[in-house]
Amino acid sequence: MKKSWFTATLLILILVLASVSFAASSNNKKDSFVFNPFQSVFDQIFFYIGQYYLYDIDLGKCQYQLLGQLSPIKQEDQKEKNECLDKYSRYDNPEDAKAMRSRYSSHFGGISIELKEENNGVVVKKVKENGPAEKAGIKDGDIIIQIRKENGEVTQVKNIQSAIENIRGPVDTNIFITIKRGQEILEFEVVRKDVKTPSVGKKLFSQTGYVYIPIFGDDTADDLEEVLRSFQNNGINRVVIDLRHNPGGELNSALEILYYFSKKDSDILLKIRSKNSELFHTIKSLSGSFVNPKTKQIKSPGEFSGMKIVILTSRASASASEVIAGTLQDWGYKVIGETSFGKGVGQSVFPLLDGSSFSLTTFEFLVGNSLRRVHGIGIKPDIEIKWEKKSGQIDEDFIEEYINSFSDPLKDPQLMKAIGELNKL
Description:
Elements: H1 5-17, E1 20-26, E2 29-35, H2 41-52, H3 59-69, E3 90-92, H4 94-103, E4 107-110, E5 113-118, E6 121-127, H5 132-136, E7 143-149, E8 154-156, H6 160-167, E9 174-181, E10 184-191, E11 193-196, E12 201-205, E13 208-212, H7 220-233, E14 238-242, H8 251-259, E15 268-274, E16 278-282, H9 283-286, E17 308-313, H10 320-330, E18 334-337, E19 345-351, E20 357-367, E21 372-373, E22 383-384, H11 398-406, H12 413-424
Parallel strand pairs: 13-14, 14-17, 17-18, 18-22
Antiparallel strand pairs: 1-2, 3-20, 4-11, 5-6, 6-7, 7-8, 7-9, 9-10, 12-13, 15-16, 15-20, 19-20, 20-21
Helix pairs in contact: 7-8, 8-10
C-alpha cells in the first residue's frame, strides 16, 4: 500500500483515539459505556495543534480566533485575521472536506462525457464509447439545459462548472439531464458509473515526449509510469515534464515519481522535519514501498534513470511539484521556466467528528542530496524564461484542452527552450 509517514501516523492516531464501546452485564442488566476522548470538534482541533503543529503556539491566546474559524460566519467575513496558525492550516466543513478528498482522486461517479462552453450554452463535446451517457442516448452536440438529481433538486446549467458539479456524484445513482437537440427538448435518465480520468497528459513533438501533470493525485505516479514506458517502448528517450501551475497534492505520489529516476541507494529525495522528529527519505529507505497496481509486483528504483529529462516550472508550481523539481535538479536534471512558489511545508489532514476536516501544517521539507530549503524561497530554474501561461479549472476535460491549446512549441517559449536543451543531450 502507498502510505507516507504522516498518513501512517494519522491512521495509527485514529485507531488509538477512536471511540471504544463495550457492554458489561450485572444482575442480568446490560449497562453500556461509550468512551470518546473528544467531546467536540474544537477539542479535536486543539489536540492536533498541541501534538502536531510544526510551530510553537500559545493555545490559550488562540482560543477565541479558533472558535471564530469554526463559526457559521465565513472566514473571509471575519473582522480579525487568524494570526495563530499559518495560512496553510485551515478548517473545512463537511461539504468542502468531501470536495477536497475528491480533488486528489482520479476516480469519481460520472457519465463519461466531455463538455465545452459556447455562446449557446454548455455543449456535449464528446460522448465516450460504451459510457453511461451513450447508453442513455445522449449525443455529441447536445446542449445541456438542466440537471435534476434523485432528491428532486434541479439546477439550470449556466456554465461548465455548474454542469460538472451536478453531473458528478455517488456511483450507481441516477440523474436526469434535460438537453436541447435541434428544436427538440429531451430528458434522459443516466446512471452514474465509476469514471477514471487520466492524471497525466501526453503529447509527442517529433522525437521528444511531453508530459503534463496538473496535480499530484493518488494515481499520478502509476499514470506517469505508464506514459514514460510507452515513450520508452517507442524509442523516445527525451521527455519534458511540465509542472507549471501544479499546486502540489499527494506527497507520496511525488516520492514515487522521484523513485523512477535514480538507482543510487544513497540518493536523498527529501528530509522531513516535524515537531518532534526528522526523517530522511532515500532510494534505499523507499525500496519495496511501491507496487504496480496491475501486476502487483514491487517496483524497482531507477526504471527511467536512462531518460533525458527537462522540467518546466512556473511561479504557481508549489509544494509536491517543488519536491520533484528541486530534487531532480539536485540530481543533475535541468529546470526551465520561472522560480517556483516556495511552499516548503506540508499539511496532515485530520478527519473530525462531524465529517469536517482540519488541515494542519505538520512538517517542513528539504529537498535532494543538498537538503535545500524550499519554503519562502522556491526552486530557481537553471534557465529562466518568463512567460504568462494560461491556467484553468482541472476537470474531466482540462488535461486534453491544455495539451491541445497551450502546448504548441512555437507559441510556448519555455517548452521550445526545453525541447532545444534536450536536443543537445
